[in-house]
Write a structure and sequence with these properties.
Blueprint (H helix, E strand, L loop, with lengths): L7 H17 L9 H12 L5 H19 L2 H6 L1 H25 L3 H4 L2 H19 L25 H28 L3 H16 L14 E8 L13 H14 L11 E3 L13 H14 L3 E7 L7 E8 L3 E7 L13 H4 L21 E6 L4 E9 L7 H8 L4 E6 L9 H16 L3 E5 L5 E3 L5 E4 L6 E8 L6 H5 L2 H33 L1
Parallel strand pairs: 1-2, 2-3, 7-8, 8-9
Antiparallel strand pairs: 1-12, 3-4, 4-5, 6-7, 9-10, 10-11
Helix pairs in contact: 1-2, 1-3, 2-8, 3-5, 5-7, 5-16, 7-8, 7-16, 8-9, 8-14, 10-11
């Protein structure tokens, strides 16, 4: 039977409280259980039958969630872009609210709490996929899965990636709401059944075996967090100093290892914004550092093609040779690295002019071949740059193309001491589990970290401090179930969401026709 409708004021209070609770599940607070309560509050708040009302409820939930979740955008680019992005992302939750009103009007779903649960979870996954895809390639920040890096549910990423983890969080949230409803109605059997669902979803992932052993040997890696002169966008204007900091950090690795002991040295995104392929001085400095440490270096840099625009690129620098391989970021961030509809947006915010040269997308999968003399073979490094770690397909494609470990190169200097960097670390931890690969997140300013294939962080740095990491990482070639099935489960969820919504609309239409016929007689 349908849930009892809340009063309008109560549904609004639940919506705001639910959004705030869900945000508390994400770093920096990281109270991952709050995500269950936040979804439960939203489910209860959407108890009224009006699609317009539920769209408003969803919008309020979204505003309460996204405003603090992406507050780093206010720090980086200003109040107006932050508010605009907050409202835009909240509109997806408004769509979910309206769609949920239509979905549950289907005759079968209307009468079954179990089917309502399954339908709501499916709809949530589909809406997350929608906002992670469109427009301009989407914006996946704030997916429920990214709140669970310290939760038992993280292990589910091994089976089905971020969509399955989000589905599990949503399922526990809805079941929690049903426990409250059943308890209020003194329906003990229904309450116990919902409690059993909660316990099973939270406990069963603990039984998933997450293998962390090396399958193809190990790689000795050094990573350099050079730091920047000052937080904020001003760091981009001090490229020479940032390069010097990373050169000094590379030399500082020799306090932990001897020359030639490392297989590769990792620099972050924008480790040098002076292109060593175009600037002889930068090239000599980087080559001297590589010779001194006795290892190839994966260096984050920028390139300016003669045809215009710029590329965000990582180049593999071989000592005495120069660039032997590279990867170019495939998914530049809209409104941050390039400005769509620049002329239309400029009257609303001058922030669009902070991006003076639009970034162009790369076209090749993120695999960088590293010739290892010690291993006697070529090791494939999976490289993703900055926000690319939030997208399911890019890390997965790298692993399916043979990547044996993952490197997440990022530059968090623009975001100050906000939670952006730790939110990104949570994503990297999920990718490590999802794809069964040791992962290094290396940032210009932190947070940088070494992550095992089971998501455990073995070493990490603080924000805005020079630091170096040294680790021996297991190389792996086997594919997890999530890597094998790819996007198919999400596509099925999308199709089911559309089908149930259409069925609900048809069911509501039949009910209206019947009601009209009865009145006419």
């Amino acid at each position: 039977m349908p849930l009892r409708e809340p009063t309008r004021w109560w549904s609004l209070i639940l919506a705001v409280a639910g959004g705030l609770l869900t945000e508390a599940a994400f770093p920096d607070l990281g109270w991952w259980g709050c995500a269950f309560l936040g979804v439960a509050a939203l489910f209860l708040a959407l108890g009224r039958d009006s699609a317009r009302w539920n769209a408003l409820v969803g919008l309020l939930w979204g505003l309460a969630f996204f405003a603090p979740q992406i507050i780093w955008a206010d720090y980086a680019v200003g109040r107006v872009p932050w508010l605009a992005l907050t409202v835009f992302e909240s509109c997806y939750i408004a769509v979910l609210g309206a769609a949920w009103s239509w979905v549950r009007r289907g005759a079968v779903i209307w009468r079954s709490a179990a089917l309502q649960t399954g339908a709501f979870v499916t709809l949530w996954v589909a809406v997350e996929d929608l906002r992670s895809s469109v427009p301009f390639g989407g914006f996946p920040w704030g997916r429920l899965a990214f709140s669970q890096s310290d939760s038992p549910l993280l292990a589910l990423a091994w089976l089905g990636g971020a969509p399955l983890v989000s589905a599990a969080v949503c399922l526990v949230g809805v079941a929690t709401a049903l426990v409250l409803v059943a308890t209020r109605g003194l329906r003990l059997g229904h309450a116990l059944a919902a409690i059993a669902v909660v316990v099973a979803v939270v406990v069963l992932p603990l039984l998933i075996p997450l293998d962390t052993q090396a399958e193809d040997g190990t790689l000795r890696v050094g990573a350099v967090q050079g730091n920047v002169p000052s937080p904020g966008l001003d760091a981009f204007a001090q490229a020479g100093k940032v390069l010097d900091n990373h050169l000094a950090g590379t030399a500082a690795l020799l306090d932990q290892v001897r020359p030639g002991e490392l297989d590769v040295v990792l620099w972050p995104e924008n480790g040098t914004d002076i292109d060593p392929q175009a600037d002889a001085g930068a090239a000599k400095a980087i080559d001297d550092a590589a010779r001194q440490i006795g290892a190839p270096m994966l260096v984050g840099t920028v390139q300016y093609p003669k045809t215009g625009g710029r590329y965000n690129t990582a180049v593999l620098w071989e000592p005495g040779v120069g660039v032997v391989a590279s990867y170019t970021k495939q998914h530049p961030a809209p409104f941050a690295e390039y400005i769509p509809m620049r002329s239309l947006l400029r009257p609303f915010s001058s922030a669009v002019d902070l991006v003076q040269v639009d970034m162009l997308p790369g076209t090749k999968v993120g695999v960088v071949p590293l010739a290892s003399a010690r291993l006697g073979r070529t090791v494939k490094l999976g490289d993703v740059i900055c926000f690319e770690v939030a997208y399911d397909d890019l890390p997965r494609e790298a692993v399916r193309a043979g990547a044996e470990m993952l490197v997440v190169q990022t530059n968090n200097a623009s975001f100050g001491f906000t939670a952006e960097s730790t939110q990104q670390l949570a994503m990297s931890r999920l990718r490590a589990v999802e794809l069964g690969r040791a992962t290094v997140q290396i940032s210009t300013v932190g947070v940088s970290a070494v992550i095992a294939p089971n998501g455990v962080v073995s070493d990490r740095t603080g924000l805005f401090t020079p630091a170096q990491l040294v680790a021996r990482l297991p190389l792996r070639h086997s594919l997890t179930p999530a890597a094998v099935v790819g996007a198919w489960p999400v596509r099925v969820a999308d199709a089911l969401a559309v089908a149930t919504m259409l069925a609900g609309c048809a069911g509501a239409s039949r009910l209206r026709r019947r009601s009209t016929t009865k009145r006419g007689t």
